[in-house]
């Protein structure tokens, strides 16, 4: 009888035997030829591997250094040469926001230091 993983095969005809019971003392009978075979599916083989045994570009990419970014520290504004209609400043900040569907243009929001937007 041969065992591949938890599958056990008959030594006489090579038929797949019923599922293993988990101990070596059990006897499995072949449904095809009627031969009785010892249950060797209970033997377990333990192997150990390391990630370095299987090098790949994806694994190297996943192990790259990733920086944590805090949402309140992200600077999304840019400075434009537009003038503010309230305080007449020449430089105002602006940001692009997608308010509608993806097939429509983004909305540009201008924000001055005086609070006008």
Automatic annotation (TrEMBL):
Q: Which residues form a coiled coil?
A: none
User: Binding residues for Zn(2+) 2, per the UniProt record?
Assistant: 84, 87, 112, 114
Domain TFIIS-type as annotated: residue spans:
80-117
Per the record, the GO terms for biological process are: DNA-templated transcription
A Pfam family of this chain: Zn_ribbon_RPB9
Which keywords does this chain's UniProt record carry? DNA-directed RNA polymerase, Metal-binding, Nucleus, Transcription, Zinc, Zinc-finger
MF terms per GO, please? DNA-directed RNA polymerase activity; nucleic acid binding; zinc ion binding
- Cited SUPFAM superfamilies: Zinc beta-ribbon
Q: Give the residues the record marks as binding Zn(2+) 1.
A: 10, 13, 30, 33
- Zinc finger, C4-type: residue spans? 10-33
User: Where in the cell is the protein located?
Assistant: Nucleus
Q: Can you supply one Gene Ontology CC term for this chain's record?
A: nuclear DNA-directed RNA polymerase complex
Question: Do you know which SMART domains this protein is assigned to?
Answer: RPOL9, ZnF_C2C2
- Keyword Amino-acid biosynthesis applies: no
**Source organism, top-level taxon:** Eukaryota
Role description: DNA-dependent RNA polymerase catalyzes the transcription of DNA into RNA using the four ribonucleoside triphosphates as substrates.
The record's family statement is: Belongs to the archaeal rpoM/eukaryotic RPA12/RPB9/RPC11 RNA polymerase family.
Protein name per its UniProtKB record: DNA-directed RNA polymerase subunit
Can you name the source organism?
Cylindrodendrum hubeiense
């Amino acid at each position: 009888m041969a065992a591949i993983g938890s599958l056990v095969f008959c030594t006489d005809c090579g038929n797949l035997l019923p599922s293993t019971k988990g101990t070596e003392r059990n006897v499995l009978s072949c449904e095809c030829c009627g031969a009785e075979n010892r249950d060797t599916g209970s033997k377990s083989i333990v192997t150990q591997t390391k990630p370095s045994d299987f090098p790949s570009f994806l694994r190297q990419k996943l192990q790259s250094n990733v920086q944590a970014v805090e949402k309140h520290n992200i600077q999304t504004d840019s400075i434009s040469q537009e003038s503010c209609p309230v305080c007449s400043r020449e430089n105002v900040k602006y940001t692009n926001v997608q308010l509608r569907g993806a097939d429509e243009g983004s909305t540009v929001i201008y924000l001055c230091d005086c609070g006008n937007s």
